[in-house]
Amino acid sequence: MIYNQILVRFGDLTLKGKNQRDFLHRLYDLVALKMQGLKVTIENTHDRIYIHLNGEEVAEVQRRLEYVSGISSYSLVVRCENDLQIMKQTALELMKDIVSKETTFKVETKRSNKNYPLHSMEVTKQIAGYVLANHNLLRVDVHHPEVTLHVELKGNACYLYNAEYRAMGGYPVGVAGKGLLMLSGGIDSPVAGYLAMKQGIEIECVHFESTPLTSIESAQKVMDLVKIMARYAPKNKINLHMVPFKELHMALLEHIPESYTITIMRRMMYRIASQLAERKNCLCIVNGESVGQVASQTLRSMHTINSVTTIPVLRPLCTYDKQEIILLSRRMQCYDISIKPFEDCCTVYVPKAPATAPRLDKCEVFEKSFDFSSMVDAAVEQTNSITISVDSDIDLSLLGLEVREVLQELKNK
Ligand code: ATP
Ligand code: MG
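Above: the input record for the complex with magnesium ion. Below: its predicted structure, written as tokens.
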């Protein structure tokens, strides 16, 4: 492998002033964090980052770059002195490294160093001529080349590369503040969390668990998903708040007409999430709802459910179809965990005919039939918070005593 550096681009910085400085510092920190433990060294400049490979395995560095929001693209580059003879020789070595069959190519030069004595056209001509004369598999095609050899003159150096890889894009996670992700064990919510982080929102997660109405494995799934999402997080870790939801869940099944149980269950979830968001300084709730996907996600349902809170509820997936969501889920490596068949509280006791246009006035009447609000407060108080990092050993005992007892009960059955 001839490449000795990775050139990391941030894309257009539309942010100005202090925000831009904040953006850059967060990005520098994020790249450094994700590269921890590797042999690389990192050179930060105002418009890009150079990762010096120092012999590190390039595939591993590329894998970790997948986890950095705020990077628009990157290239594997060979950096050399800007001496023309050295540039020609390095270009030839790069082309020998990557071309092993008949191939068309062109050279494209960008000269950011305006003091460089040769113009870009001249550099292109010199390098292309030299490579062509010394590599017998190459032919020039300036319109549709199979390989474009980029030559960039910047500062005292020359950077040569032949490909640009798209990265996560967006903003460095954390730059936009914090949000509370409603995380189920399904496919959608981890993807919603990914998109929120991509947009710069640091996340904490809340999960409503109804063990033993739901299986203990669904709680395990949620922890496994948080562990994967932590790869994208600042400090490589995410707080997970497990809300004991069984009591409320049972009360809902007992006191609410079947067609309204899901609507009102979700109103309770939003109420609890809003309280937790406030306590954890989260400025919004994020969830995996997508318009029209299920009965509780029609616009009318969303309207009726959302009216219990004034905190912004972000739904990054609201216009996505399932295939687009699955693609992202696979990219994050969450899909295989998400499809494990354990039910969560929205999938047990699903009513046969849930209301698709639930009325707010009816919800309010039903909710008055029982003292749900003290149960909401109790659930918030009894919430068990844990921190999961990329290298946490995921073990149900993390969830605390209550769940361990449930586990024991299940084992004894
Ligand atoms: P997912 O695939 O994320 O489970 P879904 O399409 O199955 O989503 P619902 O079950 O209706 O849809 O849930 C919609 C959203 O509500 C989820 O994406 C998630 O954000 C939130 N949610 C549902 N159940 C829970 C839960 N038990 N704990 C926390 N959040 C939940
Ligand atoms: Mg679900």
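Notes for the reader.
The two ends are 58 Å apart (CA to CA).
The first helix runs from residue 17 to 34.
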